Amino acid sequence: MAENIVEQQAAGQVGAGAKQENDGMTLSALFGIMRKHIITIIITFLVVLGAVITLTAMSPVEYTTTSQLFATYNDSSDGTANSSEQNSGSSYIMSQIKSYPALTTTQSVLQPVIDDLGLHTTVGQLKGQISVTNPTNTAFVNISVTNGDPAQAADIANAVAKSLSSVVENTLYASGSHSSVKLSIVQPAISPSSPSAPKWKLNILIGIISGLILGVFAALLKDVLAKQIQDDDEISEYIDAPIIGRIPEVDLLNDTKPVVVNEPGSPVAEDFRRIRTNLSFLAPLEDANTNCRLIVVTSTGASEGKTTTSVNIAAALAENGAKVLLIDADLRHPSVAAKLDIDGSAGLTHVLSGQASVKDVVQRYWKPNLHVLPAGPKPPNASTLLNSPIMVELLNNAVERYDYVLIDTAPMVVANDAVIFVRRGGSLIMVCRRDQTLKRDLREISEELTTLDLPASGVIFNCARESKKSLERSNYYYYYSDSNKKRSKKHRFSLK
């Protein structure tokens, strides 16, 4: 475990150096963001795909058919034109045919079609149904018509082809005795058997690709705009400290007893035992310089779970046989007494103001080796009392008598009480809560600690999402506990 913590610290330092060298987003970071916001990606994907399917289903069914014309040179001679005249005629056709797509959509071509077919439409509306192309370096003219009625689409395409041929041969070159260009219908339009629109396969493919792209973009945007810490991986971006524990969001933490006391066989109790082990390696009791561990527990802001974390760590340490003193030094908002359901009317405030001694207000909780010093009533001068010589003397005496002294302090955005205790040799433990700890506050506190040369010893991430690995560990732990219970019952019955 000690090696793990050292590795975490080293990794944090290496990661910080790498971050300085390369500020761009790595592929692993992108996947991390996608995994963190997978629900957002899925919802965005489904919304986009659903919208595409809905719009496709609402689109009118249309049919497209094409008639094809071929342009030839209409020579006025008796058919004995030489090769030079034929080449000249071919060049003339190629120069003229480029203008026929535009000519096809004019009123002179389309109005006769409307009259012959008895269409209830205008030239402009009919123009919107027609697409005319001249394939490059060819004498072909392709007339495509799109309509909701497949038979009518074929009739319009053939009528337009006929009208264009008539205009070219009889009207366009009226100045001469005859037209030099002849248009022949080589492929009449037929009624299509299947619709050309909507294109379901193409639209669904576009919906899938668009949904994925927009989903990833939404995840990135949500991650950038998020003001709160949402994953423990983000913590290293703002503070240089290893994560020594991850606590899931469970109802057991809302009880008035620590989980080690209330449900010692629960996975969350085991999580606090893990924190206990990590704390013991951060600063072992065998250290020649001190006989005590002074642990300062704080958070950036309110409602991040520092008090709950403090009482559970204290209980976990006491469970292991260590002599522990838990001090509620958050005089502005005392909460340890209420959390443990003990009398909080007298406490640290009375000691610091000279109204009582420590032995008068310290209470034993659960085990003989676990002592609690409540805050007492709120004083008007909390900072003055916590900086008083009496407080220094109290800590010095506590260091000599206890293996661990845990101090629950005010959030760092409220006051810098935690800094005062860390200056006196304490180990700073930051509690961060998912969707509660503000990134801005964590960054500012980290900068303050760096300026004061007071690094945080560790971070506990509260309300962490349970990974698949942790769930497997929890299931194993429950299975192990249940099997032990079954064996115990079996032994009891056998004794009888």
From TrEMBL:
<feature type="transmembrane region" description="Helical">
    <location>
        <begin position="38"/>
        <end position="58"/>
    </location>
</feature>
<dbReference type="InterPro" id="IPR003856">
    <property type="entry name" value="LPS_length_determ_N"/>
</dbReference>
<comment type="similarity">
    <text>Belongs to the CpsC/CapA family.</text>
</comment>
<dbReference type="GO" id="GO:0005524">
    <property type="term" value="F:ATP binding"/>
</dbReference>
<dbReference type="InterPro" id="IPR050445">
    <property type="entry name" value="Bact_polysacc_biosynth/exp"/>
</dbReference>
<dbReference type="GO" id="GO:0004715">
    <property type="term" value="F:non-membrane spanning protein tyrosine kinase activity"/>
</dbReference>
<feature type="domain" description="Polysaccharide chain length determinant N-terminal">
    <location>
        <begin position="25"/>
        <end position="117"/>
    </location>
</feature>
<keyword id="KW-0997">Cell inner membrane</keyword>
<keyword id="KW-0812">Transmembrane</keyword>
<dbReference type="Pfam" id="PF13614">
    <property type="entry name" value="AAA_31"/>
</dbReference>
<feature type="transmembrane region" description="Helical">
    <location>
        <begin position="202"/>
        <end position="221"/>
    </location>
</feature>
<dbReference type="InterPro" id="IPR025669">
    <property type="entry name" value="AAA_dom"/>
</dbReference>
<keyword id="KW-0829">Tyrosine-protein kinase</keyword>
<protein>
    <recommendedName>
        <fullName>non-specific protein-tyrosine kinase</fullName>
        <ecNumber>2.7.10.2</ecNumber>
    </recommendedName>
</protein>
<dbReference type="InterPro" id="IPR005702">
    <property type="entry name" value="Wzc-like_C"/>
</dbReference>
<feature type="domain" description="AAA">
    <location>
        <begin position="295"/>
        <end position="413"/>
    </location>
</feature>
<keyword id="KW-1003">Cell membrane</keyword>
<keyword id="KW-0547">Nucleotide-binding</keyword>
<dbReference type="Pfam" id="PF02706">
    <property type="entry name" value="Wzz"/>
</dbReference>
<dbReference type="InterPro" id="IPR027417">
    <property type="entry name" value="P-loop_NTPase"/>
</dbReference>
<keyword id="KW-0808">Transferase</keyword>
<dbReference type="GO" id="GO:0005886">
    <property type="term" value="C:plasma membrane"/>
</dbReference>
<comment type="similarity">
    <text>Belongs to the CpsD/CapB family.</text>
</comment>
<keyword id="KW-0418">Kinase</keyword>
<keyword id="KW-0472">Membrane</keyword>
<keyword id="KW-1133">Transmembrane helix</keyword>
<keyword id="KW-0067">ATP-binding</keyword>
